[in-house]
Amino acid sequence: MADRLGILVTGLLTFVAFKQSIADKLPTVPYQTFTDQYIQTATKIMILLCILSAVSYKVAAVEQFDTIIMGVVIVGATVHHFWATRCHTRARWGQFDEGDE
Predict the structure, then answer these.
(1) Which residue has the higher pLDDT, 20 or 84?
(2) Membrane spanning segments where (predicted)?
(3) This prediction's pTM
(4) Phi/psi class of residue 19: alpha, beta or left (left: φ > 0; alpha: ψ in -120 to 50)?
(5) Nearest Cα to 84, choosing from 18, 43, 37?
(6) For the residues of 2-46, what is the DSSP string, one character each?
(7) Which of 18, 19, 20, 32 has a 20 to 30 Å separation from 11 between CA atoms?
(8) How many domains does the chain have?
(9) How does pLDDT run across 29-52, given as a tens digit for each residue?
(10) Which residues contact 15 (CB under 8 A, 6 or more apart)?
């Protein structure tokens, strides 16, 4: 269990470090950007994995628990990534210019 949680905590720290490293390079805006939302969702998935890892350690009697949880998380992360890369559309500058007239 320690190895599994160690990898997950390393992933969480990587997300935090990445967000801090790009914070200086991006303009400060009063709303969440798409990148903020994407990193926040990925962080929530990692926290969920930490919780599920601890639960699966306690529910060792069910042999298929890890496999089921892994499948659910992989499907959820894939759907999120697919939505983020294919279905999420950027706002065009023309939409913002129309409001200024």
Answers:
(1) 20
(2) 39-60, 67-84
(3) 0.64
(4) alpha
(5) 37
(6) HHHHHHHHHHHHHHHHHHHHHHTTS---SS--HHHHHHHHHHHHH
(7) 32
(8) 1
(9) 888 888 888 888 888 888 888 888
(10) 39, 42, 43, 46
